[in-house]
């Protein structure tokens, strides 16, 4: 992913495939895709925060440094904004992240735009690294906090990882949910099978996948994207 030209080329291939509804990205990536005409007829979600750089002392003080507000999202005629919302009870920076996320949820709802909240229950180890806890109970706690952010949840969607006991995890919310593809650590067949099973749950509406589809082991972006799209929309896509 160190080559922007290669990354954008792969994104263009993905967006041209049937069944791909849209893209989630930071402003710089969306502007490249816009100039290439790749966003016509697509759902476009802007990434809002990520001032909390991975590995930094301020990682959980995750300020909005991309699209900074609902007003910016609306002014650029995007369809919504996404906010990573990591929760660590031992880190004072968490409260600023929660406050910013809540304001974004409320503001986006006022514009009738999607607020995509990506919550994680997190902890910082003795080595200083922040780890997202992916056991079912931790994900459930993160869901319950994320669901209550903002003055209304009418336009809130959740973006959640595929974890064990996902059927029990999804009972924690009535909000529509998109599944986080995550880093490709398993064989593609295993990953697709886990996605397919998760998509059978009533409130799960689709997938938001990055590296696993843009950089598949065999290099065939179109085939990987087509497989994922078929899981979401059916084999006729």
Automatic annotation (TrEMBL):
Gene3D superfamilies per UniProt: Aldolase class I (3.20.20.70)
Pfam families xrefs: Cgl0159 (PF22649)
SUPFAM superfamilies associated with the record: Aldolase (SSF51569)
Segments forming domain Cgl0159-like: 1-229
InterPro entries: Aldolase_TIM, Cgl0159_dom
Domain of life from the UniProt record: Bacteria
Protein name: Cgl0159-like domain-containing protein
């Amino acid at each position: 992913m160190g080559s922007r030209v290669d990354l954008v080329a792969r994104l263009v291939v993905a967006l041209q495939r049937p069944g791909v509804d849209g893209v989630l990205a930071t402003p710089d990536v969306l502007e490249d895709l816009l100039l290439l005409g790749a966003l016509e007829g697509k759902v476009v979600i802007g990434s809002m925060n990520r001032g909390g750089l991975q590995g930094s002392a301020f990682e959980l003080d995750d300020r909005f440094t991309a699209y900074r507000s609902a007003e910016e999202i609306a002014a650029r005629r995007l369809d919504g904004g996404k906010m990573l919302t990591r929760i660590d009870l031992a880190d004072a920076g968490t409260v600023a992240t929660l406050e910013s996320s809540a304001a974004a949820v409320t503001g986006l709802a006022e514009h009738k735009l999607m607020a995509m909240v990506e919550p994680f229950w997190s902890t910082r180890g003795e080595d200083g690294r922040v780890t997202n806890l992916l056991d079912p109970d931790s994900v459930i706690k993160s869901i319950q906090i994320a669901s209550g952010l903002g003055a209304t949840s009418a336009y809130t969607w959740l973006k959640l990882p595929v974890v064990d006991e996902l059927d029990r995890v999804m009972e924690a919310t009535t909000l529509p949910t998109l599944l986080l593809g995550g880093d490709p650590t398993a064989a593609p067949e295993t990953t697709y099978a886990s996605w397919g099973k998760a998509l059978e749950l009533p409130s799960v509406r689709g997938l938001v996948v990055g590296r696993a589809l843009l950089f598949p082991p065999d290099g065939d972006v179109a085939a990987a994207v087509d497989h994922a799209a078929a899981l979401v929309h059916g084999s006729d896509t």
